[in-house]
Fold this protein.
Amino acid sequence: MAKWNDSPLFRLALAACAALVAATNAVNGLTLGLATGCVLVLSGAVAALLDNFIADEKGRVVLFMVISAVFAGIAQMIVKAVCGGTAAALGIYLPMIAVNCLLLARPADENGVGPAVSDGVKQALGFICLVTLLGALRELMDVGTVFGAQVLPKGLQLTAMAALPAGGLLLLGLLAGLANLIKPKRSGKEDEAA
Amino acid sequence: MTRTLLFLVSCVFTQNFVFARLLGSSALFDEDRRVETALGLGLVTAVIMTLASVGCWALDRYALTPMKAEYLRVLAYVAVSLIAAVLVGLCLKAAFPKLNDALNEAGMLIAVNCAALGVALLNAEAGYGIADAALHGLFGGLGFMLAITLMAGVQERIKYSHIPEPMKGLPITLISASLMALAFMGFMGIA
C-alpha cells in the first residue's frame, strides 16, 4: 500500500496538485513555490534533528505537521509583508503549505541534518520549477501573458479552462504523462521534475 | 431551510473540497481503494472535519482572538485538526479496526488533515458562526466522501481498460479527476 514514497515524481505531482487552485499565473506559482521550498528545507532540517526519537510512520507525520505548521505560519507572515497582493490571491493556500504532502510523506532514510537539507533543496527546486511552469502555462493559455508580459496577441484567449482547477489537473496529468514518455522506466526511480 | 439546502449543494457540488478546492486531493490517488472503503473513509472524514471546524471556531473565539494571537492560527488549527483525527482514530480502532488501518495510511492521514485544516481556515476567512462552521465541516465532508467514492469507482474501471503505457497510473488519475471536476462544475448555476 505504501506507494507514497515510491517515486519523487509522484510526490512532486501530488504536492503540485494541492497548489493548483492558487497557481493560476506565473507570479502566484513562483511565490507559492518559493514559500513552500523554504518551509520544506527548514522543517526538513528541524525534523531530521528529532527523527531519532520517532519510530513509526504516523508519529513522523504528526511531528512533521507540527514543525511545518510553525514554518508555514512564519512564511505566511513574510509573504504578506513582502507582497500583500499575491498573499491575498493565494488565500488559504498559503497557510495550507503546513500540510503539503511534499513535506509530510518523506522517506525515513535520512540520517543527520546535512543529507536532509540537501534532499530538501533538491525537492524544493523541483517543486518551484514545476509550479512556476504550471502557473506560466495556465497564465499563457488563459490571458496570453507570462509574468504579466504580453506573449500572445492581445485579446486572444486560448482557453478559459486553464485557469480552473479542472484545467490545472488536466495540464498536470498531461505533464506527468509527458515525463513518463520522455524518461522510459529506469528501475522505477525517476527524479525529474516534469 | 432553503439557505441550508443551498449551502449543502454548494459544499457538495460547486465548491467540492476535492474537485473545486483541491483540499485533500491526495486522497484520490490510491489505486487499490475499493468503493466500500471509500464510503467509510469519507464518513470518517466528515466527522473529523466537523469536529475540527467546531474546535477551531471555539479556539479562535475564546483563546486566539481575546489574546490577540491570530498569528498563531495556522499552528493552532493544525494542532486541533490533528487532535480531532487522533480522537476519531481511537474510536475507530475499537469499532472498525480495518477502517482505522485505511485511515492511518500516510496519504489518507495527510488528506484528512488537509481537508480539516482547509475547512477551518475557510471558516475563519468567511467569519462563520458556530452553526455555519459545523455545517460547513459536515457538508464539506460529505462532498469529500462523494468525491473519493466516485474516484474509487473510476479507478476500478480504469484497471480493466486499455491505457497507453506512459499515461498509466498517476497521469490517467489526474485526467480522470479533471473530467470529474468539470462535471461537478456543471452544478454551478444552482448555488
User: Anything to note?
Assistant: The beta strands of chain A are 145-146, 149-150.
